[in-house]
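#structure-requests
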Amino acid sequence: MIDTRTPIPSQVLGVDLGDRSYDIVIGPGLLRNLNQQLEGLSPTARIAVITDETVHTLHGATLEAALSERQTHMIIRPAGEAQKSLANLEEILNNLFNAGLNRSDLVVAFGGGVIGDLAGFAASIYKRGMPFVQVPTTLLSQVDSSVGGKTAINNRFGKNLIGAFYQPQKVVTDTELLRTLPVRELKAGYAEVLKYGLLGDSRFFNQLESGLGQRILDLDEVSLTEAIHVSCATKAKIVAQDEREGGVRALLNLGHTFGHALELQAGYDGDLLHGEAVSVGMEMAFRFAVEQGLCDATDADRLTAHLAATQMPRISDMAHLLHDPAALLIHMGQDKKNDNGHLTLILPRRIGETFIEKRADRESVLRFLTQLRDEA
């Protein structure tokens, strides 16, 4: 049967960072012409592709065919958040050295947020820096982690505490890759899409609430492209104002301080995906803001209702991780945004308006976490 649907054209969105500016290209089928997308980004034909076993199994043949004219060195890692460690970073660096790559060659991060973080950080420190390109394969990485230049690994003290700000040369976002994504991973990515509406775009949240969100989860191509473009445009605007998170960029962490604490409590063992933690963390941020008299309960109720309607992870699903409020508070104390011992939270005034609370009261947070435990 002939496919008579009108092809969806690619969209190009710029991230304006002066001499570190780059383009995000969004559209279906971009992986098949990846060689063309990489033209002019490095003076050599050598490429190191860093990916994981799952992505390579699904899409490796397409990528290797697209790069057949180049000297391509494949580095294939196991999948999962546990890969973001010093030991695994060293293995990747050793692989680059053994392959004889130099600082003029190109690293391609081909995977989700874990691979993007690992590959980007490796590129930032290998021989003091080599160019890299993000080819994100999950919704979460396409709307968030591939854009903005944050690269990092985890350690026992918390998530993403060892890293660097290092911008890619380009982001190539192929929306067709999402068709092989498990539903759980798709919903984890949707949490980051939802974040952009909650933190600064009430109109976008209204659209998500009115059906756009479900169409995204149903993998409607037009809706996906629209959501990825809106999300990336919002992030690009904020990053252009504050590349290194000295101010407004911290707003992008709505739900992340609570969420990272839940991730650390879960142990990065796959029990809780990052986007799932963000979904719950945003609901926690709204509920905490209500408790503090900062936000109207109707806004928190709207968020909870939307999470329920789209079957997203919620506070009510986290009883097994809320049993030790004091431990969660300690985890929150390791957050990178904290300053001089003060707890920093991103909190809402309403849907579409958030602010940075640099001196959140720890006792109030502990009481809130204890209340959630008792209600679980």
